Amino acid sequence: MMPHGLKPIALPLTVALLGLIAATAPAQSTDDAPQPPAWRPPQAEAVRATVMAWLDKQADAPDAPAAAGKLWAALPDEPSEAELLECLAGTFALADPDAAALLELCSRPKSRPALPDLPWLADEKTPPLLADNMRLLYGRWLAQASLFDESHEQISALTPDRVVAPAMLLFYQSVVHHSLLQKESGLAAIEQLLDGAEQSPRRYVAVARLMQQDLEKLDEDSLDHIVRRMDDVRRRLDLGRGGKRVREIEDGVIESLDKLIKKIEEEQKKQNSGSGGGNLQSRSPASDSTPMGGKGPGEVTKRNIGSDSDWGDLPPKEREETLQQIGRDFPSHYRDVIEQYFRSLAAEEEK
Are residues 44 and 172 in the same domain? Predict the structure, then answer.
């Protein structure tokens, strides 16, 4: 008896499912014509035939084929990827209690409950037909609940040829990478999604193009990158996902801010030295009504920040000086975000 109430799926049947998408793609052209997309969604009828053949072999669920037939008969003639995936998951649930429990979880509102342990999804004995598509269903639900790390764990290794909803997979991979500030991986997933833009939902394509533009402009250790990591820390804490990973992100934020402040100070020193140090001398006192030219020496109180001191522990005066220095060189809303971030850190320390 196989675990999860399933019997082994025949190798030809597995290969048949994994080859559905490739089989529907047009042949590569050798001339200069535009190349066809690297992936295409499978035909619903081909998916139905494959899963029904698998279901017929599940001796522990003799009534499942008849119930599954009703599910597939209710599908529209040209179902969306979401409809096809959900129908497939519903078919799995008829024969497998673990799949049924996961489908029920993914049908709930995104209330961020305690997540179940699902070792069967990673068990090599679980048929790929079942594991890969249920991973996608679960990963989508996790991403919609802003549980991006957990979603990444489920769907990052999947490829379009392993699921019945390839556009959905690539879209949510893009969303997860974008949310976790994984620039290279995010741009790769987006490019692959846009390679099949004509067969993807319009909303996927529109959002993917926006994410692409956003990631292309995202530079590591820039103030924008710092603020986004601060937002990620707040998201994790709101979800009750504290611990080592959050502390690593916080340490990275502090290190990046340290670099940014140092860069600003170095630029100010260069400006001041280029203007002659700001030392102006006059042989006679200035009239009270005459404005003086020149600049001050630009000296600021030296601060010990970063590895030798915790930003969250800076005295109010020094913290205010640092925030003012950032505010002089960047839009004011960045200063507000950084100030609120350190207030949140201080509040966490007091708990």
Answer: yes
CA 334 – CA 305 distance, rounded (Å): 19
Q: Which domain holds residue 83?
A: 3-25+37-111+120-216
> What is the model's pTM?
0.66
pLDDT > 50? residue 303: no
Residue 280 lies in a domain: no
Tell whether 137 and 102 lie within a shared domain.
yes
User: Is there a contact between 280 and 294 (Cβ–Cβ < 8 Å)?
Assistant: yes
Q: Choose between 305 and 82: higher pLDDT.
A: 82
- pLDDT, residue 60, reads 84
Residue 76: inside a domain, yes or no?
A: yes
Q: How many domains does the chain have?
A: 2
CA dist 41 and 78 (Å) reads: 12
| Percentage of the chain exceeding pLDDT 70 | 66
Residue that is written with structure tokens 């340490």 in the block = 251
Cβ burial of 214 (10 Å; 0-12, 13-18, 19+) is middle
- Is pLDDT larger for residue 34 or for residue 238? 238
* pLDDT, tens digit (0-9, with 9 covering 90-100), for 111-164: 666 788 999 999 999 999 999 999 999 999 999 988 899 999 999 999 999 999
- Pair (148, 178) in one structural domain: yes
CA distance linking residue 227 with residue 249, whole number of Å: 12
In a domain? residue 84: yes
88 in a domain, yes or no?
yes
Average pLDDT over residues 329-343: 57
Q: Is there a single domain that holds both residue 332 and residue 249? A: yes
Do 193 and 159 meet the contact criterion of CB atoms below 8 Å apart? no
The answer to whether residues 235 and 140 belong to one domain is: no
